[in-house]
């Protein structure tokens, strides 16, 4: 019997990555040098937003996608934050609304005018204050309009209802800095990774922890829900300090379904999942390559496909929503790669090679669209609903009719779960306690020096007085 190689049947086996030519890149951008582990980039079908290096506050650029080529140094920016901008995310239902968070403890909502910025924008349509320390992550709800989550360095996750401009819920189950958040497909569950080495699955409206994993062998950094498969994928570091991914059952986090080591490099692994094609993309911070896999429902669950290679290291990656892809070119995913050394944003298209130029329905199933399935009040009352799907056939370009209306309010306190967040004292980290201890020691030494100087001066005055008394009086 002759030996025959075992090939796995897959329509995505030959997917390849294609980098855009130089004239279709965005050049001359002062990409931020901040070392925070975020992408610093957000993309939708109309705009590209990039966090930039700036002095005296935080700023980011918003560039229309058709405006490729070299960007002028004096190009208008969004520059209202007083601290470095740490994360930006586009509203999935209103394409000109973007949320940003910063080291100045605020979350801000910006409305970008048609055609992009003509001058610097300093006034946000909504400023949200509730965190007592800097805010590292913002995340929009996948099916509900105007629900935004923010995670701060005060170890809290706040759920904001932008219809009223206030936090309506607080998730307070973490004991250290929150590293990543991910919603499942209908937004009923939230997965988080934390610096305390724990993976949690939380019911966001109640803040109740449904599942928790203490990851001792696999120190988790990033997590992503794998669509509606009731599974999670995490990236992290093994006990031998090698980069690793793990697959979990969301209803039982006692043990991962599989663990797979990737390589021995040190950069953080960013996972990206495409629920339509069941493909997983892994991009390392500081790497030049992007690996991609296909995820199945049966063992071995994870099948390696190929790797896109590039000599230029990436600082972060923005991802284009499905309705912004070029279906005529069989494009199934698109990255926007931040190359800090060149000040360049490079689009990378993942393409399924097909000879036919007709619409390929098998690689473009119905996908979540730009219409919300729920209002904030419905979701907060406990209703769950799957996203409203749309077809990409003949190019879906319909603009959303939803308009963002900022609430008018005067609020001197923010009370959630009976706690005034603006008055709440943040927890002290070990580094902060050490800095406080050293400051107190310095203050004690300073006071001792002042006392010793005063003692010396007192003795000098006493001696002068004694000498003055011993002077003989003139008769």
Structural overview:
InterPro entries: Coronin, DUF1899, WD40/YVTN_repeat-like_dom_sf, WD40_repeat_CS, WD40_repeat_dom_sf, WD40_rpt. Residues 5-69 form the DUF1899 domain. Pfam families: DUF1899, WD40, WD40_4. WD repeats lie at residues 78-120, 128-170, 171-212. Keywords: Actin-binding, Coiled coil, Repeat, WD repeat. The structure is a single chain. This protein is mostly beta strands and 475 residues long. The protein has 2 domains: 16-390, YVTN repeat-like/Quinoprotein amine dehydrogenase (Methylamine Dehydrogenase, Chain H), CATH 2.130.10; 427-465. Helices cover 9% and strands 38% of the residues. It is built from 2 helices and 34 strands. It has helices at 376-380, 430-469; strands at residues 16-19, 26-27, 41-43, 47-52, 58-64, 69-70, 78-81, 85-90, 97-102, 106-111, 126-129, 135-140, 147-152, 157-161, 166-171, 178-183, 190-194, 198-203, 208-214, 218-225, 231-238, 243-249, 258-263, 269-274, 279-284, 290-295, 302-308, 317-319, 331-339, 344-351, 367-368, 389-390, 415-416, 419-420. Strands 1, 2, 6, 28, 29 and 30 form a 6-stranded mixed sheet that branches. The longest helix has 40 residues, at 430-469. It is globular. The model is unreliable at 1-6 (pLDDT under 50).
């Amino acid at each position: 019997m002759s030996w025959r190689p075992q090939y796995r049947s897959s329509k995505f086996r030959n997917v390849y990555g294609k980098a855009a030519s130089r004239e279709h890149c965005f050049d001359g951008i002062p990409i931020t040098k901040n070392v925070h582990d975020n992408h610093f980039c957000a993309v939708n079908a109309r705009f590209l937003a990039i966090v930039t290096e700036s002095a005296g506050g935080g700023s980011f650029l918003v560039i229309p996608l058709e405006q490729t080529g070299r960007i002028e140094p004096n190009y208008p920016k969004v520059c209202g934050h007083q601290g470095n901008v740490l994360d930006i995310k586009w509203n999935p239902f209103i394409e000109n609304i973007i949320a940003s968070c910063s080291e100045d403890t605020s979350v801000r909502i910006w409305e970008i005018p048609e055609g992009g910025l003509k001058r610097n924008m300093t006034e946000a349509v909504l400023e949200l204050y509730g965190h007592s320390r800097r805010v590292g992550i913002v995340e929009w709800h996948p099916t509900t309009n105007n629900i935004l989550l923010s995670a701060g360095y005060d170890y809290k996750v706040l759920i904001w209802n932008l219809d009223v401009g206030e936090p309506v819920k607080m998730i307070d189950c973490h004991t250290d800095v929150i590293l990543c958040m991910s919603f499942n497909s209908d937004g009923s569950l939230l997965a988080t990774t934390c610096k305390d080495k724990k993976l949690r699955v939380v019911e966001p409206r109640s803040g109740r922890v449904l599942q928790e994993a203490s990851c001792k062998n696999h120190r988790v950094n990033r997590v992503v829900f794998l669509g509606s498969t009731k599974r999670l994928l995490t990236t992290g570091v093994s006990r031998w300090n090698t980069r690793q991914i793990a697959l979990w059952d969301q209803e039982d986090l006692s043990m991962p379904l599989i663990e797979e080591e990737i390589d021995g490099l040190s950069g953080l692994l960013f996972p990206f999942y495409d629920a339509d094609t069941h493909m997983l993309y892994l991009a390392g911070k500081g790497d030049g390559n992007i690996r991609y896999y296909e995820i199945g429902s049966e063992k071995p669950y994870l099948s390696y496909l190929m790797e896109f290679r590039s000599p230029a290291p990436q600082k972060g990656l923005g991802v284009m929503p499905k309705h912004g892809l070029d279906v005529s070119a069989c494009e199934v995913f698109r990255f926007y790669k931040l190359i800090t050394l060149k000040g360049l944003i490079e689009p990378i298209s993942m393409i399924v090679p097909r000879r036919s130029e007709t619409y390929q329905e098998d690689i473009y199933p119905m996908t979540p669209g730009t219409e919300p399935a729920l209002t904030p009040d419905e979701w907060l009352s406990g209703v769950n609903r799957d996203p409203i799907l749309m077809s990409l056939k003949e190019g879906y370009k319909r603009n959303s009719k939803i308009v963002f209306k900022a609430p008018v309010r005067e609020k001197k306190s923010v009370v959630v779960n009976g706690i005034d967040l603006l008055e709440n004292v943040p927890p002290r980290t070990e580094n902060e306690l050490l800095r406080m201890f050293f400051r107190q020691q310095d203050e004690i030494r300073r006071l001792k020096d002042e006392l010793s100087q005063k003692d010396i001066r007192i003795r000098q005055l006493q001696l002068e007085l004694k000498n003055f008394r011993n002077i003989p009086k003139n008769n």
